[in-house]
Amino acid sequence: MRVTVEMVMERVNNYLDEWIVTVRDKYPRVCNPDSKPTRILVPQGPEFSGDKTQSGEGYSLDLSGLDLRGKDLPFALFRNADMRRIDFTDCDLRFSQFISCDLRYTTFNDCDLSWAQISECRLQDSSFLNADCYDITFVENETNFGVTGRTYIPKENHPLKESVNFFSRPDPGKKIGKKVNPFQLPGDNRPPHTAAYAFHQEYVRKKYDLKSFALW
């Protein structure tokens, strides 16, 4: 399936509205104060997932070559997708996830990848110039010099060598230099991902008036 920029942004802007329609259809409101609230799982972000082809060399979902410069894509999940030569320059990709994607020749220059995850991806000839990689999860990625986490890759050859807050990241346990998580309810001192999901749940609860449901 070939995906366009317009399709990406439509998913980003409408994924919660589409989700709530399915919730309302599946769980029509019933006024029964004695019944336990129905538990529903809230999607944290827009998802773009495909499958690997039978040959194992390609993907059913094709986002390659898209110009996504300057787009807001926090919490987006990309999985099993051809994402070669995408331009993510100056994107907000906080808490985003890239899992088992082809990211060769993809540009992440000046992105905010704080708390993001890039795992099991192909990253040969990708660029992370001045990308903020604070507290990023970066494992099992194929590079020109081996697989991260399996092979020792010196800084000068590492894909994130030109990023910021990765090799020189301050100790996140110290207040000095610690990056503040903007997606966090007042007084919530839990780890960033847990706090961000709680923040998102509260936003969804209020936006769609879901007080009769138990969100998880």
From TrEMBL:
<protein>
    <recommendedName>
        <fullName>Pentapeptide repeat protein</fullName>
    </recommendedName>
</protein>
<dbReference type="Pfam" id="PF13599">
    <property type="entry name" value="Pentapeptide_4"/>
</dbReference>
<dbReference type="InterPro" id="IPR001646">
    <property type="entry name" value="5peptide_repeat"/>
</dbReference>
